[in-house]
Amino acid sequence: MLIGETASKRGYLNEGFRLFHLKDSRAQKVDYHYHEFDKLILLLGGKVAYLVEGVTYFLQPWDVLLIQHNLIHRPIIDPSEPYERVVIWLGRDWLAARSDPGEALDACFEAARRRGFHLLRADAERRLQYMGAVQRLEAALHSAEFGAGRMADTLCQQLLIDVNRDLLRDRTAQEQRDSYRVDPKIEEILRYIAANLEADLTVSALAGRFYLSRYYLMHRFKAVTGYTIHQYISQKRLLRAGELIRAGTPVMKAAEQVGFSEYSTFLRAFRSTFHMNPREFR
């Protein structure tokens, strides 16, 4: 993210889900961003690291990266090799409509967020199964045969069921320390911020709570995450407020619940981030 800027929303999803099969021979710089939908990334080739909420993941072919809606992230792409991947955008309404009681299709995204670890690394046998699942899904999406749309919908659900099963029983990548890099103290602070958006989250308050100097906290937070403490907290508060507003919470109450003490400050920040006022956003 450029200094002084916040992460921007990227991409719009009007259908239930969308699959992209992308291959770039030249690396492009992608700034920090977030989505209002959930996203699966399956690396097919190339060298890429992903920064997701302060953790850096070093991907290998057929690794699966799970990025829940509103998580701030960006890739760092090594231009020495072509970067090929399959990216699947998943609408939250589509996921909810295809979930069963007690078995939500987006449980894998919620588990990854709660665990603070977003990488799934399957063994050789499971990689072949993922390869076949993605190929069948791509074929159905490009097919004009009878029932192709229904088949694609079903295959996407099947892929998500596999990801859920694998993520809930496998911590292989988390045990491989060379697969990611994290600063334990910053990770602890990020977890605290996410759980306490309504609290006093000034630099001084955080530094006192975690027994750090203000200078070290500001410097280390920026070095690890790529953005300042103020930028990060403001972005997280606004994204959470947006979720509350769309769920029916009155605007002023939503602003208060995420830590904005002055409505005018919230309104200016909301318009700057979403380019509309809260009632239009609802």
Report what the structure shows.
It is a single chain. The model is unreliable at 1-5 (pLDDT under 50). The longest helix has 22 residues, at 148-169. It is built from 12 helices and 11 strands. By secondary structure, it is an alpha+beta fold.
List the helices and strands and how they pair.
Elements: E1 8-9, E2 17-24, E3 33-34, E4 38-45, E5 47-52, E6 55-58, E7 64-67, E8 73-78, E9 83-90, H1 92-97, H2 107-115, E10 119-120, H3 124-142, H4 148-169, H5 172-175, E11 180-181, H6 184-195, H7 203-209, H8 214-225, H9 229-246, H10 251-257, H11 263-274, H12 278-281
Parallel strand pairs: 1-3
Antiparallel strand pairs: 2-9, 4-7, 4-9, 5-6, 5-8, 6-11, 7-10
Helix pairs in contact: 2-4, 3-4, 9-10
State the end-to-end CA separation: 27 Å
Computed Rg: 20 Å
Overall mean confidence score, pLDDT? 88
Tell me the overall shape: globular
Q: Secondary-structure element order, as H and E? A: EEEEEEEEEHHEHHHEHHHHHHH
How is the largest sheet built, in terms of strand order? 2-9-4-7-10
Oligomer: single chain
Structural class: alpha+beta
Task: Give the total of beta strands.
Answer: 11
Name the helicity range.
Answer: 40-55%
- State the helix count: 12
Largest sheet: 5 strands, antiparallel
Unreliable residue stretches: 1-5
What is the percentage of strand-forming residues? 15-25%
In short:
By secondary structure, the protein is an alpha+beta fold. The chain has twelve helices and eleven strands. A hairpin with a 2-residue loop joins strand 5 and strand 6.
